[in-house]
Model the fold of this input.
Amino acid sequence: MDSHTAVAAKPHGAHAHPGYGELRHHFESFDQQKDSATIGMWVFLLTELMFFGGLFLAYFVYRQWYPEAFASASNKTDLWLGAFNTTVLICSSLTMALAVHAASMGKRILLVGFLIATLLLGGAFLGVKAYEYHDKWIHHEVPGEHFECEGCKDEVHTPLFFALYFGMTGLHASHMIIGFGILLVLIWQAWCGKFTTKWYTPIEMFGLYWHFVDIVWIFLFPLLYLIDRTGRTLL
Amino acid sequence: MDSHAEHHVVPKSVYFAVFFTLIALTWVTAWISTKDLGSSSLNVAVALSIAVFKASLVVMFFMHVKYGTKLTKMIVCIGIVWLLMLLFIAMMDIWTRTWMGVPGR
Amino acid sequence: MITATPPPKETKNYLNAEHGLKSWLLTQDHKRIALLYLIAVSAFFVVGGIMAVLIRLELATPAGDLMDSNTYNKVFTMHGVIMIFFFLIPSIPAILGNFLLPLMIGAKDLAFPRINLISWYVYMLGGCFGVFVLLSGGVDTGWTFYTPFSTTYSNGYVVMTAMAAFINGFSSILTGLNFIVTVHRMRAPGLTWFRLPLFVWAHYATSVIMILGTPVIAVTLFLLMLERGLHIGFFDPAYGGDPVLFQHLFWFYSHPAVYIMILPSMGVISEVISTFSSKKPFGYTFIAFSSVAIAVFGFLVWGHHLFVSSQSAYAGMVFSILSYIVAIPSAIKVFNWAATMYKGSVRLEAPMLYALGFIGLFTVGGLTGLFLSAMGLDVHLTDTYFVVAHFHYVMVGGAIMGYQAGIHFWWPKMFGRMYPRAWATVAAALTFVGFNLTFFPQFILGYMGMPRRYHVYPPEFQVFNVLSSAGASVLGLGYLIPAIYLLWSIKNGEIAGPNPWGATGLEWQTASPPPTENFEVTPVVTTEAYDYTALKLTQEVAHVG
Done:
């Protein structure tokens, strides 16, 4: 299974090695350290998946029970704005993938550039999202005392759709905001030349996180925006 | 099993091909949702299939799982299986709850 | 504090490597973090134990003479919340697992030492919320937080309590993540998967549950807090929400959480039984895979907690059948332990006594679980003392007996000192007798129809309740005595030596207490696990008993 290389005598404590970053004292080799980070990140994403999973279950249950409420409430979202935003997010995923590529090639300026592009595209996504929230707010489509949904069918149950809409997109957006903070740190570190062709693990790990957030949106888009756009349920 | 996360450098062209497919599918799925395909479940099936396909492209190429270790692939599979387990086993209750015809059941 | 007790021989070990409070609070050494957990978890055990004392005192008489129903609700809720989220779930993994996992696989530390320390702080943060709730008046929902009572009607600090459990969940996620990566990437050269001690297999399976289950309870509690604060309607029938959905989400984690509690215990028992029989465990592969099987099947049975809710009867049938299946891997373990002892040279040291107690009590707990997974019978027994007795047999008779077996087994390794063995034997016996006296009458009470969670009951139930309360005081003594002699032994116990029990396993090949780096040189494993012949050839076994 695992190929452990012969154990070389090594001084205790963490120590630096040119180009490889820092080898923490409890690891035997850089390969081991990097593999551990990768496995750890994937396991973390597993927990993230299950975390969103609970919300998806709530969504499926209520969509099953109140199809009309969901279909008509879904029409209150802006289809083309949603599609545009999906495009923006996919672009940011591309720039992130290219950032990892640039890091593996050791192109510092290109890496910084792609990271900044990812940051800006992520910001654009959140901007559009904020605009959509604002739009919902002024149309009283936020669940609560003043909730109303003009022309919706089964109006008693439409707040459930909007509760899930805000819950799911809100949780997604909070992941992006956390990603934002990490990106700022990474951009600074990349600018300072912390990463080399042999060691750019944080960039790679963050890439995995960013793509995961993208995947969540890939499912949120059809589930929240595209329930029924044919107007069938509104007849 | 090759347990080292080899630095398999994916050519940029792959990234761009995946990217354009993703963009195209996004607009296809948005456009097709406005068309009545005959039954609403068909519309749902198309939308979800496109989403699954898009997600697998991201996982395979952007997240490098195609070039990753067996362990990474296993973790991804476990994630999918467990999510479906949560969804389907709980929905099994929702789907069959009305079969008895007893009010409240 | 424990720090102030360096062993007389001034060999460098993890206890005397550094001094001062700061060296403990900022440590990244898995062994020190394990001790931090030991202190915190023990403190919560005491608090939860006091709640149990109050419950048993109140139930000694049929009338509600000690407290009113509202207070009683809060007391049993805090007992449940503290014992489950703050004691049982972290007990073995975060203390013994943390301490032993790297030692057992010949590593210097867990894969992510910083995350390990963070997990302790996250646990403490959750603990602060728990203590806040306790001091400010408590919560009365029961540890299950069932909606819509918890979201709409309860007067207690529901959001705060949910927050405590929510935060605490991340601590166990971080621990699980660390264990999984460690087992995959930190094993010593030559230590293949099937040479791993069964303790490691059990912890690996436990970690899988922590990783896959805990996020679901996190999001569930998140929705619960939103619902209580904003009344969105997720779980409120008045808005079209489904309270049963909450139960589904809750038990998707909380049923597997039972296996988070029992699996590590089973790992301990496998080690102890093998050591004190001086025999390789019978059916090593079966025990190893049954751990994984329990982890997987444990996720398929949650619906048996919902038999009397409005869950579909058809779903109930499926859950009922699946619940029977999960008994198979548990039974495999019990039979294999028995077969391990068969024709072994069994030594009845304290850890072994606890382990034997575990087997008996866990078997009773498991078999009564089968009663409850039979849907028809469960309708009769739901929310009676039968259920209370059943899960205490599994969690106290199983998980805590295993925890005590483990503490007694590895105490000499952790502190380098042996406790007074005669007292340990007495404590093990008292625990076993006290436990049965406390909880066996509850089976009868439950079958007779006494419901749980009431502070008054008809006078005809008093005999069994008095028996139970009397047993609880014996059980309390069984917990108090070890606390005294274990603490005493840290300073005054006889020097244990590296391998006092004649056990195999890498953790016994290093000094007691181990040095900070665990091993002088990274060990290379050339033999199968539990190779007692090799052990006898290569080293002088310290004679025991």
Observations:
- Residues 34 and 43 of chain B are 9 Å apart (CA to CA).
- Confidence is low (pLDDT under 50) at residues 1-6 of chain B.
- Chain B is about 70% helix and 0% strand.
- The first helix of chain B runs from residue 12 to 33.
